[in-house]
Amino acid sequence: MKIVLATRNAKKVPELRAILADAGVSAEVLSLDAFPDAPEVPETEPSFVGNALLKARAIAAHTGLPAVADDSGLSVEELRGMPGVLSARWAGRFGADDQDRANLELVLDQLADTPPERRAGAFVCAAALVLPDGTEVVTEGEMRGRVIREPRGENGFGYDPVFVPEGESRTTAELSPQEKNAISHRGIAFRKLAAEIAAMV
Ligand code: ITT
Question: What single Pfam family name could you report for this chain, choosing any that match (predicted)?
């Protein structure tokens, strides 16, 4: 069996491969690099679940293979749940090299006057599997924590340098990839999805 990971985020591919392998899914996991003509799928839905399904449906239709996608983001209580589904482009559209830093700096600016006790938030993820026969499976995961004031750490991507998970003193950018996968929103959602895939094959 082959599975396509419907993501253009190169950092997500090894995360997802590792989680599927750990769950005993022995499928060949292809990335979108194997499908240069795959469509760009605009994330037009108001929910993580809706956008994950959009991406997985489009790539399953294009490739004729089972497709897995996720939509994820940072939800900050003080910002009424935002950036949320707008996380990837929160600061507007920047070049690929500057996008994450611009997004993160905007959130830090928005929370500049917010005291520590009101800086709670969570990384949230919806993961979707769509099969060519139309079968759809959706799972969700969350990692609660807080937004700190100064970026720390080099690992991960996006808002990792400013997010400290509950029970941790390090940011998710200071955790190893294995440590982050074990507790992350995407790790949780993908382990649930991997269990469903393992039960199907
Ligand atoms: P694909 O849609 O191609 O998968 P993407 O990076 O645009 O790639 P999302 O639409 O899921 O992915 O947007 C997620 C954004 O939310 C991402 O760009 C980060 O800014 C943030 N984000 C999601 N998961 C994160 C994580 O584990 N660590 C840090 N930031 C994360």
Answer: Ham1p_like
Give the CATH number, domain containing residue 71. 3.90.950.10
Give distance in angstroms: CA of 2 to centre of ligand 1: 24
Tell which atom from ligand 1 comes closest to the C-alpha of 157.
29
Task: Give me the domain span that covers residue 56.
Answer: 2-200
Three-state DSSP string of 78-93:
HHCCCEHHHHHHCCCC
pLDDT digits (tens, 9 = 90+) for 97-145: 899 999 999 999 999 999 999 999 999 999 999 999 999 999 999 999 9
Is 133 known to be catalytic?
Answer: no
Distance from C-alpha of 118 to C-alpha of 37, rounded to nearest angstrom? 45
Model confidence over 19-72: pLDDT tens digits?
A: 888 878 888 889 999 999 999 999 999 999 999 999 999 999 999 999 999 999
Q: What pTM value is reported for the model?
A: 0.93
Q: Is the CB of 48 under 6 A from ligand 1?
A: no
CA of 198 to the centre of ligand 1 (A): 25
Domain total in the chain: 1
